[in-house]
Design brief:
Low-confidence stretches: none
Number of helices: 2
Radius of gyration: 13 Å
Shape: globular
Strand content: 35-45%
């Protein structure tokens, strides 16, 4: 499946590329919008993935060599499928994965 990109930033960190590769294997449609890359000063050698469920889809906070916020615009059903795929992926077994919700107005 071709991943459509939104926004101005198109660069992904090495850690983010691994997460996006897992998402690309899913057959659901979504729109990917990479955010700006920030340099990490802590957490050396550890990879973290925080999945934030929002009204617009998912927001992935990925930190490893650098930290990056990747927004995934999709429907609620697709968000559930993608979230489950990330949590159960064997390719991301070295990541510490957390899930939370941020749904204003609900």
């Amino acid at each position: 499946m071709k991943i459509r990109r939104a926004g101005d930033h198109t660069t992904l960190t090495e850690t983010s590329e691994r997460v996006v590769a897992v998402l690309a294997r899913e057959s659901t449609s979504f729109r990917l919008s990479p955010g700006e890359i920030r340099q990490n000063r802590r957490r050396g050698g550890q990879n973290y993935l925080t999945i934030v469920k929002t009204n617009a889809g998912l927001e992935l906070l990925i930190s490893g060599q650098g930290s990056q916020k990747v927004t995934i615009l999709c429907t609620a059903a697709s968000a559930a499928v993608l979230s489950k795929a990330l949590s159960n992926s064997k390719r991301l077994n070295d990541f510490t994965i957390k899930t939370r919700e941020r749904m204003p107005g609900k």
